[in-house]
Amino acid sequence: MSKRVALYVHIPFCETKCPYCDFNTYARIESLMPAYIKSLRREITQWGAMLGRPKVHTVFFGGGTPSYLPSEDFVAVLSEIHQAFQVESDAEITLEANPGDFDKAKLTAYLEAGANRLSIGVQSLDDRLLSLLGRRHDAAQAVSAYRLAREAGFENVSVDLMYGLPHQTLDDWTATVERAAALEPEHLSMYCLTLEKGTPMEQWVKAGTMPEPDGDLAADMYVVAEEKMEALGYRHYEISNWAKQGLESRHNLAYWRNDAYLGVGPGAHSYLNGMRFANLRPPKEYVRLMESASTSKAVGVLDEAAVRSVRVVDSVEVIGRRLEMAETMMMGLRLDTGVGEEAFARRFGSAMEKAYGPEMAELTQDGLVERADGALRLTARGRLLGNRVFSRFFAETADSTA
Ligand code: SF4
Which domains does the chain carry? Predict the structure, then answer.
């Protein structure tokens, strides 16, 4: 059983649904909130009991829009987590928030309950692009929300931005990066827009009413972000993330290091004891099943049967050794530190060279990865062509668990 876990808490509510978003999140289901919070607390209690109240080193409230919840609900859920798990005294506790959804009283309640990191969905500081993204805030509101978080006392704030948008020019992007960096957040995440299947934005592009995002321009935007952030002293510690030294997202580092995590709430994913599993996605169904769930006892070993006994778990995949190796490479290569050769050997009892000699040689020759400081990591070119690199480690994993 994993000794310590990163805990993800899914909040599936948003005031409106952004046209590019395919997350498991919904608008106009607010009436479900009270029952949802009850069910979520129940699932937290259930997992805490089953796992024998393990240590938790990070808690991440994501969604959805956690800041859309009444603050009492956030406080109640966090208090349940403290009862069900041993939350380490220096645990990172993050909450995602959208400008316009919170005021000072809410922020104070979050801080008093123990939240110590706020991740604000700014996305752009260009009003025209914010409206194209269907966001409910404008640039001035985003800046005010950021300042409010500072005034309330948040000392660790992350800002999310998006690039590669239809109608976005290199100048628009440069101005947004400069204005966001001028706020001096501890952390910035910058994501390229992906046209997700079935979203309104994908339909608009298909129908020709919105231009297709330009991939080459998006790559230029990425390079601009890299240059600006480096000049400002941020560490580009993951493909899409920059942080001031020591203020990397500890929660996301658990994902990138392929460490144990538990997700609660509809559609949440977990990775525990060599199994990846996911809860069913519809919030109403989640509530219905959790309402009739029985209480759980500690399990000696968390095996597939134990995971499947949780009523809201919808799918379980047992991760074989070869797949775990490939996932460790894929996730770890996203980090600037790459995958340490010693850590790899410790985890798998086999040298990286032995497991991936031909892949490493080929990718090195193509200038996509390099070996340095006892680790394999992406080059600058490799960061732009990450998917090409990652796919090399997945050949032959489908039927091999050796
Ligand atoms: S606020 Fe975030 S989670 Fe909600 S719909 Fe928009 S992008 Fe999706």
Answer: 4-255 (3.20.20.70), 321-392 (1.10.10.920)
Q: For the chain (length 402 residues), average pLDDT per consecutive 10?
A: 88 97 97 98 96 97 96 98 98 96 96 98 97 95 98 98 97 98 98 96 96 95 96 96 97 98 98 97 98 82 93 97 97 97 97 96 97 95 92 73 38
Span from the CA of 121 to the centroid of ligand 1 (angstroms): 9
Q: What is the pLDDT of residue 67?
A: 96
Cβ–ligand 1 contact at 18 (below 6 Å): yes
- Strands of 339-340's sheet in order across: 339-340, 375-378, 369-372
Q: What is the DSSP string of 169-237?
A: -HHHHHHHHHHHHHT--SEEEEEE----TTSHHHHHHHHTSSPPP-HHHHHHHHHHHHHHHHHTT-EEE
Side chain identity at 378, as an amino acid letter?
L
Q: Whole-model pTM? A: 0.96
Query: Which numbered atom of ligand 1 lies nearest the CA of 123?
Result: 7
Q: Is 14 left (phi over 0), alpha (psi -120 to 50) or beta?
A: beta
Cα(18) to ligand 1 centroid in Å equals 5
- Cα-flanking dihedrals φ and ψ of residue 11, to 5°? -115, 105
What's the alpha-carbon Rg for the chain, to the nearest Å?
Answer: 21
| Gap between the Cα atoms of 109 and 313, Å rounded | 32
Report the pLDDT value the prediction gives residue 397, as an integer from 0 to 100: 64
- pLDDT the model gives residue 299: 85
Testing ligand 1's pocket by substitution, the residue of 16, 61, 65 carrying the most ligand atoms inside 8 A of its CB is: 65
Break the chain down into helix, strand, coil percent, rounded to 5.
45, 20, 35
Pocket probe for ligand 1: among 15, 23, 67, 159, the residue whose CB has the most ligand atoms within 8 Å is 23
DSSP letter, residue 295:
P
Tell whether ligand 1 has an atom less than 6 A from the beta carbon of residue 25.
Answer: yes
Check residue 384 and give its pLDDT: 87
- Among 334, 343, 327, which residue's Cα sits nearest to residue 378? 334
